[in-house]
C-alpha cells in the first residue's frame, strides 16, 4: 500500500536528520540488528517448528486452502453496522491431523460443519470451535474425537458467523460522507493489509496461502457492490451481487465496496478501467482515469506480462487510513489522491496522483500476481512499487523528468533514515504489530533505491528481462528474495553480463544487512589512480563498524564527462579497499564517482578533488549530471553536519548555484540554505548570508519570475515554488515586489493565482505589504468557510515583516470577537515565530503581555502556552531572545505553573541548547567564509586563499567584537 505522502519533504528530511543525530544508537545495537539480519541469510526462520507454542504466530501447516466461497449480508445503507457472513472453504489436508486452524478477528457466533469432498455420500461432520484471542486462531475439531483427517484428503469447511462493521478504517468497515444537500450517506468498504481480512471472514490470513475466491454480497438495492472481479451477471439479482471467481490470490488483497458510488470508465489495449467515487465528483476523476490507462499500459509494456484480471477499477474512499491500497483489480485511495481539476489543484498534486497510481498498479504484478512468502520480504513488493511509481511515470510522461523527484524524495529519505538505527530490508517479523512496524523507509524507499542501483549497474536490459522471468516463473505463486536473485542471475547469464560474483551474493549484501556504505575516495595525483575505501555510513563518524558490501562503481571526469552509460565498470567486492588503476585521471581533472547518482551510497572525496569539482561546477556546471550536482550538495551538507567536511567546502560547492537552473539541485540547496537561514537570521553578520543567497538565486529567479509560463518545462513549476520561497525568505527585493504585485492584482482586481503558486504568492506577497493588502487577507480569513483556505491565510499572515501588522496578527489568537477555531488560534504564533526574527520578536512581545490569556485558550489537558514556549525555544538563536524567553518561562512558572507541563523547562532549555550547540560549532566558519567570499568580489576562492582569508577575518572579528 502507499504511505501517507508529505509535500515539503526534502526540507523536512534534512531537519529530521539533523535532529535525529543525537539519537544514534550505541554500536552494539547496530551489530545486534545486523545479526538478526543474518538469520535471514541462512534462511533458518523459514523452517519453522510446528510446535503450536504460544510464541508461534504462524498458522500450522497441516491444512491448506484451495477455494473460498464468501457470502455477506449488510444493511449499511441505513447505517447498520451488524453484518452476517458465511464462508465455505475447500481445503486439503497436507499432514494427518484432527484440527483445522484459521484466523478470525472481532467476529463471533461461529457455527461450523465439515463435509468430505472425496466421498459425496459421507455425512457432514459436526465441529467444536475454539478461539484463542492472542494469536487470533480459530480452531475446529470434530465433536466425535475418534475422527481425524488423513493426509491428502479434501474437505469443505462451512462457517456461519456474525460481525460488526468497524469504524476504525480497518477490516470490513463503515465510512460516511455528507452530500451538498446535507444528506449523510453510508458505505461499507475494506482495508485488509496486512492482517485484517480475518475480520471480514475466517480465513488462512497469510500472504502465501493463496486460493480462489468467489464473493457474494447481499445489500439494499439502493446500493451497488464492486470487488476484485467483474460481476457475474447471470447469478446476480436485485440486492444480491455475485462476482466471478478470482485466480489464486492472497487474502489481504481481497476488497469489496457497498456504496452509492458512481463511476467513469475507459479502455486501453482491451482492458476496461473505471474510477468510482461519491456522486458529483465525476468531472474531477478524469485525470485519475487517464493516468490509470497510460500507467497500466506502460507497466505492461516494460514488464512484458499482461495484467492478469479482466478489469481494473479505482475507488476513492471518504475515510481511508493509508494513502492507497493495491487490492487486485480494485485499487482504493484517499479521495484527495483521486480528484484533480486544472482550476483549483496544484501541479504537484497532479504528479502525486499519477505517482500513487504507479505505485498501486505496480503492485498488481509485484505483490498481487506474485505474492510474498511472508512479511519478512515486505520490501519485495513495496520496493518494486516505489521504484515503479517513478519508472511507470517516466515511461508514460518522459517530459516530467520524474527521477529528479525520486532523487530528492525517496532516494535521499532512504540515505537519511538508514544512517542511524535501522534493520535490514529482509527482517523476520511474526505478530500483527511487528508486521505493521515494517511499513517505513526501510521497506519502501531503501529497496526502491537499491533496486534502482542494480537496474543501472546490471543494465536496464538485464533488469527488465530478470523481472520478466521473475514474474512469469512465479505467477500465481509466492516468493522470497532468493527467487528474485535467481531470475536476475538467469537474465545476466542469458544476456552475457559478466559479474564478479553471483547476483545472490551481490544483492543479499544489501538486503540482509542494515545501512549502506560511505565511500572515501583518495586520489593519487602523481599516478592518476584512486583508492576507494568503504565502511558503513553512520551519523556518528567515530562509531566503529566492519560492514562491507558488493558496491557497483563507475566514474566520470573533466576529460570524460559522459554520464550515459550507468553500468558498473568496477565493483568493490565486499572488501574494505580497492585501488582503481585502469582509469587514468589527469592531475587537473575533477573526478566524480556514481554516474547519475544511481548507486545507493555517499561519497567523500579528498580536499583537492573537492577544489577541482567546485572549480568545474563554476566553469561548466553541465559537465556534471543534474543528479550528481544535487547529490554533491546533499552529501557535503551531511558530511559537514557530522564533522567530516569543512563548511568552506560546502559553501564553495554551492557557489556555482548562480548558474543552476534544474529542480533537484535547487531543491537540495533550498533545504540546506533554509536551515542555515534559521540559525543565522539573528546574527549581526546575517547580511552576508542573505546577500550570498540572493546572488545565487537571482539569475534563475529573473528567468522564472513569480508567474507560470505557458509551455515551460514541467519541473519549472516545482522549481519556481522553491525559488520564490528561498528568494523571499532571504529578502530579495525583486521577489518581494513581484509577489506583492501578484497578490495585489488578485485581491484588488480578481486576477487568478495559479493553484501551484497560491501558498507562495500569499506568503511572499505579505512580506512587505502595506496595511490595505494585509487587511484584505485578514478579511478573507474571517469570511472564509473553507478550512484549507483559512489555513493558507493564517500561515501567510505570519510571513508579514511589519511590526504593527505582526502585533495585530498574533493578537488574533486570543481575540474572542473573531471566529477562529481552537486549532486555528494555536497555529497563529507558530506561523510568525518560525518565519522570521520579526515574527519571533512579535510572539515574545505578545506572550510577555498576554501569557495568561493565551494559556486560558486550552481546556482539559490542552496546554497551548506550553506548546508555544517549546516551539519558540526551537527558533531562538540569539542571546537576547534566549534571555527574554528564560524570563518569560520564569514568570509563568511562578505565577501560572498550571499552564506548563512537568518537563517544560527542561524541554525549552534542550531546544535552545541544540541551536546554540550548532552555532558554537558552525557559526564562525560559515560567517568567516561568507565575509571572505564577499570581500573577494564573489570570485572563486581556492582552499589556500580561503585559509589565509579566514584567518585574517577571524582576527578582524575578534578585534571588533
Ligand atoms: Zn505499496
UniProtKB/TrEMBL annotation:
Annotated ranges, domain Aminopeptidase N-like N-terminal: 65-253
ERAP1-like C-terminal domain mapped to chain residues: 590-898
Protein keywords: Aminopeptidase, Cell membrane, Disulfide bond, Glycoprotein, GPI-anchor, Hydrolase, Lipoprotein, Membrane, Metal-binding, Metalloprotease, Protease, Signal, Transmembrane, Transmembrane helix, Zinc
Keyword Lipid metabolism listed: no
E.C. number: 3.4.11.-
Cofactor list: Zn(2+)
Active site positions: 360
Protein name: Aminopeptidase
Organism field: Drosophila virilis (Fruit fly)
